[in-house]
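ARCHIVE ENTRY
Sequence with per-residue tokens
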Amino acid sequence: MLLRTKLIFGIAMVLTALPGWPEQSPGNLPAVLDKLNQSAKSFRSASADSEFDHIQTDPVPDTEVMKGTVYYERKGSDFKTAAHIATIDNKPAPKVYTFVGGVLKLDEVNANQVTTIAQASKFTDYVMLGFGASGDELAAKWNITDLGPETVNGVQTEKLELVAKDPTVKKNIPEVTIWMDLSRAVSVKQIFDLGHGTSRVNTYTNIKVNQALPKDAFTFKTDHSTQYITR
């Protein structure tokens, strides 16, 4: 279960003060969620450069850094996402994660192997965390604390602390902190406490909302020698 959860949150694995809006202070959560409700209505798609840092502090300190590009698309209740990983620790290591129709797939390009996790649909609301999720959708799954406005990489955001209402999710991911650009309903940064001395820090830059996505954003190439594994 922990492995599946980490894989899912690795692609997302799934949120200020803004121009024209009055400055928010910590604790004004209803106003923040209302702004996300409004912004999410116009969200259709997003792309961004991404960096996923998997940090281990115990028993041996270690950090793995994955860099690439992420894509998100939402049409009503239909949501899909993909992460195209280019490098791991600055070395070429092409991988493609896709989450489409509640099915998570990992294409390990160099190994020509595709792994499918078919029972991932129940994590849809967590995979879409921070990209197109409305305030009401977040509140349905998380206990939320508004920590107030904060600027991240030049972007004005609202910092939110999330604790999952689902005991299973909470057991594997005790806490999530997200920095939301409320005007676009997108996340600029996320920190997942994975417990056991590990965490994942996701940072998104060059975020483009509601622009055309590549035709192969949610697919990958296979051939007659591709190996398939189902979990």
